[in-house]
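Narrative of activities, Objective 1.

The group set out to show that a structural description can be obtained from nothing but a protein's sequence at a throughput compatible with the screening campaign. Below is one input-output pair from the validation batch, recorded exactly as produced.
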Amino acid sequence: MQQCPHDRFSIEELFVFKGKLKNYLLVLEELAQVNDECDIDITSRCTEACKTKMIAIVQATFNQYRNDLCWYYHDAKIGVDGGSSVEYLITMKSGTPQEPSPFYNFTPQVAPGNVLPNYPNVLGDQNN
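Output recorded for this entry:
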């Protein structure tokens, strides 16, 4: 029997650095691609444990990405060309943002493990 196509995903490895970026960004790229090469669909080789794991990975990945992008949009300076969301995340998650930056304000304090604090929900109860 062939392995489950989701064996390559690990909740424990989700927020480990792969180069300059955390692994969740690579997982996000796979989850967001719409083509047959990604193989993220449930197959006959999957189990209930696989389904549960993938739900947790999807929630953790998209919650972290949403949070990171909200902080980027919050901190990006208006009227200045340059800088990017990836550059911002690399700088914030390295734990060494350098003030002043021509591109960002670096508002949040990075928590242990180089995690940004949760961005406030501006939608209220909508779309939780």
